[in-house]
Amino acid sequence: MTMLTSAPTGIDAPRDVLAALLPDDPHQGRPVVMDEQAKRESRRAVIAGICIPGYIVPFGSREMPVARGWGSGGLQVTLAIGSSDDSVKVIDQGDEEGVNAVNLRRLIVGTLGCDATADTAESTIVQSRHRVPEEHMGTHQTLVLQVPQSEPLRGVEKSVYECKRRHSEADYAKMWVGLYERLALTGVMGTGTGHPVMVHDRYLMSPSPIPRWDVPRLHQSDHLTILSHGRDKKIYAVPPYTNVEPIGFDDVPFEVEYDAAVRCAKCGTDESFMIETRTHEFICSDVQFCLKVRAGQADLEAHDRIVPRRYYPDPSLRVRAQADAEVEWSVAAGTGVTAPGQEWSLKVAGLGKVFAGRRGSSEVVAAAEVSFDVAPGEALGVIGESGSGKSTVMKCIIGDELGATGEVRIGAVDEGRTNLLEMTPPARRRLRTDTLSVVYQDPAMGLNLDISAGGNIADALIAAGWRSYHAIRRRAAELLERVDVPLDRIDDVVGQFSGGMRQRVQIAKALATDPQVLLLDEPTTGLDASVAAGVLDLLRELLAEREMAVVVVSHDFSVIRALTDRAVVMRQGRVIEQGLTDQLLADPHHSYTQQLVAAAHS
Fold first, then answer.
1. Residue 331 pLDDT > 90, yes or no?
2. What is the distance between the alpha carbons of residues 561 and 365, in angstroms, rounded to a whole number?
3. Which of 153, 229, 505, 554 would suit a FRET pair with 374, their CA atoms being 20 to 30 Å apart?
4. Catalytic residues
5. Domains defined along the chain, listed by start
């Protein structure tokens, strides 16, 4: 190391002396678009994404100094994993000479000091928007996709928390409901780009806005695919040789954009993704591939192996699948299940729930030592004033309220041996797919008002494992007809319905999978008298047809009298009287019950 006895200062200092005082420039004069810390953040996220295929990994990289539309997510990944030894290809909508592609290529080459190429076969990194190259990519190559929407559930789920929960529990029924809605309205799958896929049979992923034609190319591919959203700061990846399966219905298969009558006007191929020109001709979207075909330089054998013929539209396959659906998917009203040696389908024993006090107030006992059981085909009424604890008991049973003590058992769950209160929240939610259903006082709590009546019933059936569009459609029509909702309104958005009709749709949804236990929470409160009477008549008929254990929570004695066989009366969180409904209402023993009955008749 050279020692300087007197370092010259000021603007006249020799340049070579100043350079000796400064550290070596690792970028060799190239612009520092992305600092080393940001690169490390991106690389860590990429490694995590590779380790857990399809999992959305957040990372802390800073914003990139580029214009919106340049694909800052793809740029961050390319700059983080690339080096001067790489050869980078940048394409935008299949073209290497678009404005965005040219500008990004200049920035990447200028920053990394790497080579640039238009040839997919010569590249080590391909940064793309809207397309996977038509040419086969090998194990030495990485595809970086610029993602405009990092959360695949965003279109069907507004809550960020719910999106995270659904990913953690692999609960993707809402995505199938979205497909159902598109099919019902258009008659086709309806997704143009970014069709949702299951990665490694576990995580739902929406690829960058690539056409359906490119989706099968991600399945068991030889190359690594990295998808990144810069502004959301999310990365996910598909390692080589990973299963990537497009989601769909068993009887409405996933299809790619293919028409045997369409050929490229430039190269003549009919097996690549086409775009229509202003002159109504079709040409290959991947410009470089098209040029290679014309020049006789394309590896057509390698391309032939990745052509997604398996997913070409096949009308005959649709017909066969629909016929199969008529046989495979059906639900019959089953017999109620009881615990071995017992008569009950639902048993509640010593149920208690205490709410902590707020701002110095004492704790609130909402339920204490509540016990009852319900047999198959029996309806039990729970009566009480507002604040008596009846709704809290119902919420504890269905899992809307956690932290309760005591026991809740269902004969159909582990033969009644498992205490539902000790199950995890995800396990309790799964019970509500086909074992336990609820009809809320407010239909908005049991329905999605932004989708159709048929879509709401599809929601229940899909959550229970149904994957046949036509069987779901048929079941929804049967149920809606049974609850007197006109079939010509099956595809109308529920938010446009009246209160009474919404309640009928909610009842149909609750009965869709013939649950073992049905809970009715003030099912007619808030409805006009004539509408409420019609809903009561409907419920009475439906309950008589099924061997379900039913709990009816209401303060309305007319509802309890019309629907239930036995009843319990609650006051201040406790059961103070119980018996046969007719006897209880005709000859109440407890003074509180007497007051309730007298008030109802006054």
1. no
2. 28
3. 505
4. 54, 264, 267, 284, 290
5. 36-152+196-246 (3.40.50.11310)
